[in-house]
Amino acid sequence: MKGRKLLMIPGPIEFEPDVLHAMSIPTDSHVSPDFIEIFGNSLELMRTVWKSPKGQPFIVAGTGTLSMDMAVANLIEQGDNVLVISTGYFGKRFKDILERYGANTTILEAPIGETVSLEAIEEELNSKQYKALTMTHVDTSTGILVEPKFIAALAKKYNTLSILDGVCSVAGEEIKQDEWGLDVVLTASQKAIGVPPGLALLIASEKAIEVWQNRKTLVSNYYADWNNWLPIMKAYEERRPSYFGTPPVNLIVALETSLKIISKEGMVKRINRHQSLAKAFRAGIAALHLEILPKSNKIAANTLTAIYYPKGIDGAKFSAKMIENNIIIAGGLLPEIKATYFRIGHMGSVSSNDLISVLGALERTLLELGHSMEAGKSIQAFQNELLKINEYNL
Ligand SMILES: *Cc1c(COP(=O)(O)O)cnc(C)c1O
Questions:
Q1: Do 373 and 366 form a contact (C-beta atoms < 8 A)?
Q2: Which atom of ligand 1 is nearest to the CA of 138?
């Protein structure tokens, strides 16, 4: 399609045509046998994507922030100690939510472009009894990737619940919820899961459900209370009709479609694709001598890349020119350095051809704005890197 623009922000993303088609079919009753099957199957497919055969999935109308809110509202009571491990904007959002529910929070904040060391986390967990810790798998404001496996193991050692904000990682980065011992892994539909915005998705471990069941006080958020939603999830999974709040029927039909596409690709292949494309993309960016926000490639996310503007480039002009060149990108999000960088999402349906388009537009945009460089450099580096990654089938 002429003039078609690619949406390359870190959510919402470019959706598969079959997913968009699923959104447009006539809305069925939320208690029809066909829809009950779709809802039940979606819950089951979530377990395979999260790698959590024992977990309890929830599908609720809302955004990723509702998933965060739901985890906190159900697991935390007034006065509980909670450790927040922050690698950017979304780490701090967890602190705000936790404090709203009366938690005593301690925040370990990574310097910009870095992660919090395991030593610092262990030292803090050892200093007092924490009921839970929160971490952001990929902080979308910085493009920083943390390793939940090791943090979850520490949490387990100190009898602390681990809550993972996987909004920018589930179905794009490696996650093994049960094996790693994560108690909550939460996300939203519009990111790597590949469904238009509107669904809050999470899986709670058996331990998380037990902690919730043993609460001393009522959950103070009526809509988010698992007392209202758990029977609904169980009913749909047992293929029985039930009702608490009307489910977003079309979005759930689209979710099932996307989860089937994800399962068909297979998680190993899907994660490899994200890793290969991200690595090649970073090689392209490096070839232009542009600096990425993460201090090393080891902690750079595979679902998005945050890049500093080169000297003399104005962010607003840059974004506008990128749109003229048919690529929609996101600006900075971290308040301290918001105007100094931009973000490119590369998750879900993303392909090598999409990223070649991005790099082509990026080069033209920089040249048009008077930045001196040689055209084609980033695309060459991208291609060479991708060809080197032999598992990746071009
Ligand atoms: C997008 C995002 C959120 C918030 O999700 P919304 O759907 O916008 O509420 C939370 N955490 C992370 C890591 C995100 O990327």
A1: yes
A2: 13
Residue range(s) in the chain whose domain bears CATH number 3.40.640.10: 17-265
Which pTM was predicted?
0.97
Torsion of CA 21, 27, 31, 35, to 10 degrees: -10
**CATH fold group of domain 267-393:** Aspartate Aminotransferase, domain 1 (3.90.1150)
Q: What tens digit of pLDDT does each residue of 156-170 get? A: 999 999 999 999 999
Q: Is 71 within 8 Å of 97 (Cβ atoms)? A: no
| C-alpha dist (Å) from residue 251 to 20, 22, 57, 246, 308 | 9, 8, 16, 12, 35
CATH number corresponding to 17-265: 3.40.640.10
Closest ligand 1 atom to 168 CA: 15
Ligand 1: atom nearest CA of 65 is 9
Grouping H, G, I as helix, E, B as strand and the rest as coil, residue 342 is strand
User: Any binding-site annotation on 343?
Assistant: yes
Give the whole-angstrom CA distance, residue 55 versus residue 39: 16
In angstroms, what is the span from residue 387 Cα to ligand 1's centroid? 33
Beta strands in the chain (DSSP E): 6-7, 56-61, 81-86, 104-109, 132-136, 138-139, 144-145, 161-165, 184-188, 199-204, 304-308, 327-328, 330-331, 341-345
> Is the pLDDT confidence value at 360 over 90?
yes
Give 81 Cα–ligand 1 centroid separation in angstroms.
23
Q: How far apart are CA 171 and CA 180, in angstroms?
A: 16
Give the mean model confidence (pLDDT) for residues 17-22. 98
pLDDT digits (tens, 9 = 90+) for 316-351: 999 999 999 999 999 999 999 999 999 999 999 999
What stretch(es) of the chain map to CATH 3.90.1150.10?
267-393
Which pLDDT score, from 0 to 100, does residue 394 have?
A: 47
